[in-house]
Amino acid sequence: MARAQGARSQLAAAFETVYGTAPSSGFTKLPFASITLGSAQPLLASELLGYGRDPLAPIKDAVTTDGDIVVPIDAEAWGFWLKGAFGEPVTTGDDAATGTIVFAENPTAGDTITLGGTVWAFTASGATGAETDIEASLADTLAALVIDLNASADAAVAKCTYAASGGDTLEIVFDTAGAAGNAFTIAASAAMPSGATLGGGGSVHTFTSGSWTLPSLSIEKGLPDVPRFEMFSGCMVNSLSWQMQRSGLLTATANIIAQGETPATSSAAGTPADITLARFGHFNGSIEREGVALGNVVSTEITYSNNLDRIETIRGDGKIDGADPSMASLSGSTVMRFADTTLLEQALNGEACELTFAYSFGGNSFELVAHAVYLPRPRVEIPGPSGVQVTFEWQAALDPVAGKMCTVTLVNEVADY
Asked: Does the predicted TM-score (pTM) go above 0.85?
């Protein structure tokens, strides 16, 4: 008999069209470190008398379905949880996908390159269609190739703009900015492409606080060894919280409130789509105050909460009717080495400042900007001979100029969420 192990567990999620109704397809496999999401139904001890000292059988109380999922803060999967917490993002193209094909020598007749599935050949002379004549030198051949490619009416080839550099390299730039160009394939029979596809195309996903409409998810937790697969429908992200520090693994906790759970012995998520894990680390983090790096920060805890209101009505199935967002909140606790009085003076004056918490590596980035942060007056304690630290339990609020409490930006290669 197989025993369930966390190493074999699975987590898949998909956004719902109708609250509480799990979609039949569209699930994505998501990384996670731990999960407590589940249904609990306590027993109520009998209060009845007259049957001796031994109690009568207990009765079942209401079912509660909620819990935490600890997930990595990464470039792609993190967007699912941000969408659940903030609502639909505004997605725009940012960087165009690029690539190169490097030639070691002048091509010979019959050599080819492949662009988006179109095979382009080199000929000794009389080139027509998807062909280019070989010239006296590699640089001259590349110059002719660039002219031919940029003038081509082929639907695939025309998706890109071409240039020659260094006398041996064909540069390729996808014409439309965003992640779509990352799927454009390149190959060569006698040259070295930069990869199987173009890369570096990015999309900018912008989330803002204060949305009245939040999407729901269906989340399946699977233990295939037993087997037991629990489908949680009507999942709403109540809060996201994480800590910034100097070292360690960077994870966030998503607190989930679900409508209910449906157990099964086989998966209802089908074959979930895989997602590329490009994980941020604490080393990639930075904190700015009013656009200037904030020094002497030891650690920071950040929590965004939707403060969901469970709609607990009388139903035959024991489920809730929904979870409505109430007043949102963004707060945190920042521990600093006491080196100057800038934040202390801000706290004493009751002024607000803008704080930016960000991670970045390669072409991926995640940034949360709290537009109006208020600091309480902290105690400045001297616990001993070592360095003095001050803790600011800050709160963010609506900024009248920005018109919102915070803005979250995620840049990655995902076309949309």
From this structure: no
